[in-house]
Amino acid sequence: MSDHVYKIVELVGSSRTSIEDAIATAISKAHETIRNMRWFEVVETRGHIEDGKIAHYQVTLKVGFTLESE
């Protein structure tokens, strides 16, 4: 197994459906521009309430990706 060096970025995803969908949305969008993503950590979960109901979920993620070799 080779040694790995990771770069970490912070993302915020949101969804009207669920926390899981907010995570998936953030990772899917980041995948468009960030290569070699390997792991994520949910560091904060929030939501917005309207008229006594959940309007949307919001999650803050730390995402680690490996750096490319030259």
List keywords for this structure.
three-stranded antiparallel β-sheet; 70 residues; alpha+beta
SSE topology:
Layout: E1 6-15, H1 19-31, E2 37-50, E3 53-66
Antiparallel strand pairs: 1-3, 2-3
Rg calculated over all Cα atoms: 15 Å
Strand order across the largest sheet: 1-3-2
Helix content: 10-25%
Strand content: over 45%
Order of helices and strands: EHEE
Number of strands: 3
Structural class: alpha+beta
Our count of helices gives 1
Distance between the termini: 19 Å
> Spans of 5+ residues with little confidence (pLDDT < 50)?
none
Largest sheet: 3 strands, antiparallel
The overall pLDDT average reads 93
What general outline do the C-alpha atoms trace?
elongated
Describe the structure.
The protein is of the alpha+beta class and 70 residues long. Helix content is 19%, strand content 54%. It has one helix and three strands. A three-stranded antiparallel sheet has the order 1-3-2, with helices on one face. Strand 2 and strand 3 form a beta hairpin. The longest helix has 13 residues. The protein is elongated and about 55 Å long.
Summarize the model shown.
This protein is an alpha+beta fold and 70 residues long.
